[in-house]
Amino acid sequence: MIVRKNMGRARSGLVLLVALGFFLAAYNLVSMVIHNKASNSGDPVIRMPGKMMQSSSGSDSKFHVALTATDAAYSQWQCRIMYYWYKKVKDLPGSDMGKFTRILHSGRADQLMDEIPSFVVDPLPEGLDRGYIVLNRPWAFVQWLEKATIEEEYILMAEPDHIFLKPLPNLASGTQPAGYPFFYIKPAENEKIIRKFYPEEKGPVTDVDPIGNSPVIIQKSLLEEIAPTWVNVSLRMKDDPETDKAFGWVLEMYAYAVASALHNVRHILRKDFMLQPPWDLEIGEKFIIHYTYGCDYNLKGELTYGKIGEWRFDKRSYLLGPPPKNLSLPPPKVPESVTCVDHLQVRLVKMVNEATANIPEWDSLNRS
């Protein structure tokens, strides 16, 4: 059993090294990652090879909006809606939003290249992500940072299922990035696992922020330092059965939090960065809607989470193609106690409907 496991790791390393032979010299990075992953020892911090780290000074606070995506229809329609609302709010008062890039880690161009500013990067070598496609996210950022020309000093790491409610200012403070605290990222409660990747000599486990990589506004120079280690920690976590089981679909989020701590980077935790329906009750002064969860209600306006409601909006209902135009609004009969929830749902659906009504070829362009 041990021999087979080691042979499997060796084969993964060999596949990776062969694939990376066709890359630029800078991508020796992942071979170093595989070495650390296979040995499960040594310094987990990985440096960007062949690139001088330069700290920006004297520049403005504009940030580049960057999101990683695939060429699947499910990803494409979310990116189109996100980009529509980015354009709507980018130049309004209070905005520090700069240019926009969809970092496409499918390894090939798609039909949205002319609609959305995009940069094509390579996915991880086949099989290395073990079906967990999110592992491509840190590797995509490493490639983009190495190869792209990025004018802004700061970067907002965003996701396709984000909608900008209003202009977003730069929430970072100098070299201290800003991130959103997720209620389900709990480093202290998972200290035994965290210590596999963030040893005690590095500092207390509370130095690991309860965040993922998105949304985060961070200096480009800092992200250049963190990203290679983020790749390393992500692959090592995925390679550890206990960690993989414990963290599941948020493994890569924990990896970013740990990688940041390994570089002594702490984030300003901004609860107003975004909201997540149906759990958040008020829009208030928040900046982004993250519609990752399904929203189900009965006709009385009561939340039926975990059970398909008589009214629902769930992005996973549209895996093979975009949602139709003019989605129905949530039920109007809402008890006073959930009025704010309904208001948020109404706002979300209206924003989706506005985008789909104004994006050309919405019904046909990205249906598979």
What are its keywords?
transmembrane helix, 2 domains, transmembrane, single chain, HPAT/SRGT1-like, 3-stranded mixed sheet, membrane, HPAT-like, 9 helices, 12 strands, Spore Coat Polysaccharide Biosynthesis Protein SpsA, Chain A, 368 residues, globular, alpha/beta, disordered N terminus
Kindly describe this structure:
There is one protein chain. This protein is of the alpha/beta class and 368 residues long. The protein folds into two domains: 59-269, Spore Coat Polysaccharide Biosynthesis Protein SpsA, Chain A (Alpha-Beta Complex), CATH 3.90.550.10; 275-358, no CATH class. It is built from nine helices and twelve strands. It has helices at residues 2-20, 28-39, 73-89, 136-147, 191-194, 220-239, 241-247, 251-262, 339-358, and strands spanning 63-69, 97-104, 118-120, 154-158, 162-164, 178-179, 216-219, 268-269, 274-275, 288-290, 295-297, 311-313. Strand 1 (63-69), helix 3 (73-89) and strand 2 form a beta-alpha-beta unit. The chain is globular. The model is unreliable at 1-41, 45-59 and 334-339 (pLDDT under 50).
